[in-house]
Amino acid sequence: MAKQKEPEQAPEEGAEVPKKSKGKLFLLLGVGLLALLLSIGGVLYFVFSGDDEPVSSEPATPVQLPAIYQPMEPAFVVNYTHAGRQRYMQISVVLMGRDPQKMQDMTQHFPLIRNQLVMLFSGEDFEELLTAEGKETLRERATLAVQSMLEREMSDPVIEAVLFTNMVMQ
Question: Which residues are listed as membrane-spanning (predicted)?
Fold first, then answer.
């Protein structure tokens, strides 16, 4: 005799779920977990990749400190003999640097700086100093002379420029 198929009964509460249902559940959980991980990876890639500039091998330019001006008081007075007459030049000098500590340390060398500038100014040709180019040349030479002297004394030129704030010639 042939066996008759028994009608399927609804599973009772607490009864074991058939294996077919567990396989689908694990498959759905796996796909959901994979989608979550891919989403997190995409977000992290987007956040951390950004549009960063490539890192250059050149060092960053140092930040330039504000200028510090140190006047040399009193003004320099130099005498010249020009065309048989006694001539004078009075010149006010300001030293420009950027490092406050080095500028402070430099003040102990003011007598040497003054001597260097007096010797430079007194050796100039009065006629050349009457032109704008002659004055600029003298300013450049004064800058180089002071930087050279400070390099010897302090192992650092300290100043960027010698500036003439007032120049009177008669």
Answer: 25-48
- Residue 113: CB atoms within 10 A of its CB come to 23
93 close to 165: Cβ distance less than 8 angstroms: yes
Q: Report phi then psi at 92, rounded to 5.
A: -95, 130
Count of beta carbons in the 10 Å neighbourhood of residue 121: 19
**Mean pLDDT calculated for residue range 139-146:** 96
Q: Select from 63, 110, 72, 119 the least CA-distant residue to 93.
A: 72
Beta bridge partners of 88: 79
- Which token pair is 151? 């390099």
Q: Which residues of 21-56 are buried (b: 16+ CB within 10 A; e: fewer)?
A: eeeeeeeeeeeeeeeeeeeeeeeeeeeeeeeeeeee
Instruction: Yes or no: say if 94 and 165 are a contact pair by the CB < 8 Å rule.
Output: yes
Counting residues of the chain whose pLDDT is more than 90, the rounded percentage is 55
Q: Where are the beta strands (DSSP E) in the chain?
A: 68-82, 85-97, 159-169
Pairing between strand 85-97 and 68-82? antiparallel
Q: Which residue has the tokens 């077919």?
A: 20
